[in-house]
Amino acid sequence: MRVFVTGGTGLIGSAVVAELLGNGHTVLALARSDASALAAEKAGAEAIRGGLGDLDVLRAGAARADGVIHLAFSHDFSSAEAVARAVAEESAALAAMGEELVGSDRPLVTVSGTPYVPGRASTEADPVSTDGPVGGRGRAVTAILELASRGVRSTAVRLPRTVHNEGTGGFAGLLTDIARRSGVSGYPGDGTQRWPAVHALDAAVLLRLALEEAPAGTSWHAVADEGDPVRDIATVIGRRLGLPVESVPTETYGPLGPIFSADQPSSSTHTRQTLGWQPRHVGLLEDLENIQP
Q1: 109 has which bridge partners?
Q2: For every residue of 170-182, which 3-state class applies, written as one string?
Q3: Are 165 and 214 in contact (CB under 8 A)?
Q4: Do 94 and 38 sit in the same domain of this protein?
Q5: H-helix or E-strand spanning residue 212
Q6: Any idea which GO molecular function terms this record carries (predicted)?
Q7: Which helix (H) or strand (E) holds 68?
Q8: H/E element holding 19?
């Protein structure tokens, strides 16, 4: 397939582009800067200049492709307003690409987070949240899955709170950044809340499988570690950075505080059994040992 990829030069996207090219696909990669375009071309993709706000560029990219994988998202979590702007931009981008594919039976793979379910690990059958700081992403993904009734093979790969590679990425990466700035490797509450995780190279395989095989209207979980206690994550970060490890106020994490404080383990049993996906790379705690002091 010729695949249009948004976010193709990020931590996850670069792994996805390599996975696609390594399995016989060609890639058109959205690139919002000269540096991103050079990175995409160096990886073997054709760069298409533009950002998520350039809806005509997104429509044109989708029109040229046999399938779309959407990964791009602004990671400005500095305020509730910044998060809302990022969600609104992504929602408009997804709607534009989805409409371009209506009636074509071409695949559109998008991503969301794994759901939060009180008292147990979430599964692929659980609905994504449409409330809270990033609830708009859930609404946008739900709308894309509904395009299955309009001739789009739309699917969603739900990513865990941390997608990691070489000690960086995801919410664990945010904890590391905050620790460097504050001088404390902190965690909210008592730190027993669990975060699921996956290595970026394993997530890339699942995104390819969803593109190639997943039926329309389905959701899948890219979860390798069902849930690592946040205190354990902070402990590794603190040891690697030589910083004290302690509980800090939830407000430390701004608009993401409620998410950081929630116990949110997740299962990928159905995904593994149905698509034959099997994570093969190191887990989060081992990968965090790659953090450089």
Answers
A1: 69, 155
A2: HHHHHHHHHHHHH
A3: no
A4: yes
A5: helix 200-213
A6: aldehyde dehydrogenase (NAD+) activity
A7: strand 67-70
A8: helix 11-22
Say yes or no: 116 and 178 in one domain: no
For the entire predicted model, the pTM comes to: 0.94
Structural domain includes residue 101 = yes
How far apart, in Å, do the first and last CA atoms of the chain sit?
42
Supply the range of the domain harboring residue 90: 2-162+198-224
The DSSP element (H or E) to which 3 belongs, if any, is strand 2-6
Over the chain (293 residues), the average pLDDT of each successive run of 10 is: 96 97 98 95 97 96 98 77 84 96 98 93 94 81 97 98 95 96 96 97 98 98 98 98 97 87 96 98 98 93
Contacting residues for 40 by C-beta, under 8 A, at least 6 apart: 8, 9, 17, 27, 29, 31, 46, 47
φ, ψ for residue 44, nearest 5 deg: 110, 10
Pair (52, 100) in one structural domain: yes
Q: Number of folded domains in the chain? A: 2
